[in-house]
Amino acid sequence: MQEMFVFETVQLIEELEQIILYSEKKNGLESSINDIFRIMHTLKGSSAMMSFSNISILAHSVEDIFYFLREKKPKTVDYLQLTDLMLKVIDFVGSEVGKIRNKEGADGDPSSISQTLADFLSQLKEGCPNTGEAGTGAVDKKHMGQAGEGHYSYKATITFEEDCQMENLRAFSVIHALQQVAGDIRHIPEDISDTENCNREIRESGLTVLFNCPLPEGEVRQLLEETMFLKELTLEYRSADAPGKGRAEAGVTGANEAGGANIPEAEEACKGQNCEDNTYSHDKMSNLSKQNFISVNIQKMNKLMDVVGELVISEAMVTQNPELKGLELEGFKKAARHLKKITGELQDIVMSMRMVPLSMTFQKMNRIVRDMSRKLEKEINFEIIGEETEVDKNIIEHISDPLIHLIRNAIDHGIEPAEERELKGKEATGKITLEAKHSGGDVWIILKDDGKGLDRDKIIQKATEGRLIQRPVSEMTDREIYSIILLPGFSTKEEVTEFSGRGVGMDVVLKDMDKVDGSVLIDSKPGSGTTISMKIPLTLAIMDGMTVSVGSATYTIPIASIRESLNITEDDVIKDPENNEMIMLRGLCHPIIRLHKLFNVVPGTDRLEEGILILVESENEGICIFVDKLIGEQQVVVKALPQYLKKVQGISGCTLLGDGSISLIIDIASLINNKR
């Protein structure tokens, strides 16, 4: 129950934050009043159901405000102040949910925020004379005493979407919502705490509720339509002034006196009377396009991925068994091809299940930009491109913190104040662009700003003072110098502020990228801005690789990095004054790396014409790798290297081949970076 509450609450507050930030940018919260009211109503009910009263109280306070805005439509509203209040509410709820997730007590005190919300509502009422009581709390006080008097009698039947899970808790949430405005509530199933039987009965027959309520049918319908995972709602009602009033009410009252639901009698009482049958059902066409989701614990997904990985290895060990070499087994080969096809499809399905879009992570950055730009009094236009790009779930968890630090740094260090920008002939409003795109087997996340750029000389000065430079500056490229800002303890800020100056933060970017085998590139142009590019693998689990041999050793090169393979002679090789080998291909000069020299192994041959050259590329730069021969292409399961081997140049991991031997995976980006 608690896991489901955390999952749904996180979704609700993330949706709420995006609605608020988007509305603020466009045309204010006025256009989103109904959406915000719906979310807060759901949050109030679910948190009360789980006995997290502090969250429920706060949600109720917000709900009162948006009920007033929706019903009374006041002309003068300070939406900027309301936006700030809503963001405080989101932060509070997010903090409490974090405690719940960590098995801690949700003991935060919402009284200060609740009082501010109450004061805001009082100001709204003062600006709208003769409004009387308002808000959902006011509905409670005004109507609860009359609910049992039977102003309207209702019967509602609710069915939930398939696979929504925990139907009894969702039924409890419906009953709890009705208790705020209705009386004489009876329901089938009667015992919604009996989890197994109740869930089965609700799936088969739905939840049926009889109640008396002073609200008209439209408001009751709207209340019930806010139920999460609602598939269908049937609502029957009749006015208390209609003929036959006594008979219908007798059915309900009799149920009360008997102490049971007695819903069949109430149904009979309604027959032949002035009742209306109104059925709410989602549009069939929207149902066709609507996706059905089921939440699965990420640990189970990781375990499934591990099992599929082992299946891939086992399939290779069977089909590539050395004992089969030279045997003509047509039936076996046909079965092996079919097994490989099924294994590949299973692998693709599992991989797709683990892929999640970057949209939620990217959208969270809107809040960072908003808060910092307001505190630093800088106008910033924040643009997001490619948020639909998908990456592995395990990787996406390591992206958020680096992005936060990079964006904070861009706003604090990069974007100049409006006056300074205008003096330089720039627009007063700065621009930050966050972009994601696929490139081969990698995902590029690129952050650009049009600020003042990085000060190369100042970076060198600070790095020299801090003894962070290990080799002569004259031998370093601009990109290497700019990358110094990622080192722990480095800062060019003269004063320590709320946002920077302590020499921490940017090193987090590098640490998190290392965890996912990613890399960071920094380019900057003085006066024009800075571009920081993070390259991360699409997945850390499985990849297509080309297995090559060098002497008795085997290595795997990522297929996504290979451009071509070719045979050459010694006459095709060019040597520079330092005797480094290069080759000219289509007008471009590429360095040659002999793997046997790099890894100190005995080669099968060191003659270029007897081996094979493989052209590989990364970041639009290429090198040629010399190996003995190509063994073949296959999908491989990537295994992480032990910690003490993490920093070995040119190696990113290892894999197990079909014959049981281990093949090291070549890190192309690392080889190219060391050849620059």
What report would you give on this structure?
The structure is a single chain. This protein has 676 residues and is α+β, with helices and mostly antiparallel strands. Helix content is 44%, strand content 22%. The protein has a six-stranded mixed β-sheet with strand order 15-19-20-18-17-16. The chain is flat and about 100 Å long. The protein starts with a helix and ends with a helix. Residues 132-150 and 241-291 have low confidence and may be disordered.
Summary keywords:
676 residues; alpha+beta; 6-stranded mixed beta sheet; 5-stranded antiparallel beta sheet; 23 helices; 44% helix; flat
Total number of strands: 23
Sketch the major β-sheet. Answer: 6 strands, mixed
Percent of residues in β-strands: 15-25%
Cα distance spanning the termini: 55 Å
Number of helices: 23
Determine the fraction of residues in helical runs and give it as a percent range.
Answer: 40-55%
Radius of gyration: 33 Å
Subunit organisation of the chains: single chain
Strand order of the largest sheet: 15-19-20-18-17-16
The low-confidence runs, each spanning 5 or more residues with pLDDT under 50, are 132-150, 241-291
**Class of secondary structure makeup:** alpha+beta
Tell the overall outline.
flat
Question: What is the residue-mean pLDDT, rounded to a whole number?
Answer: 79
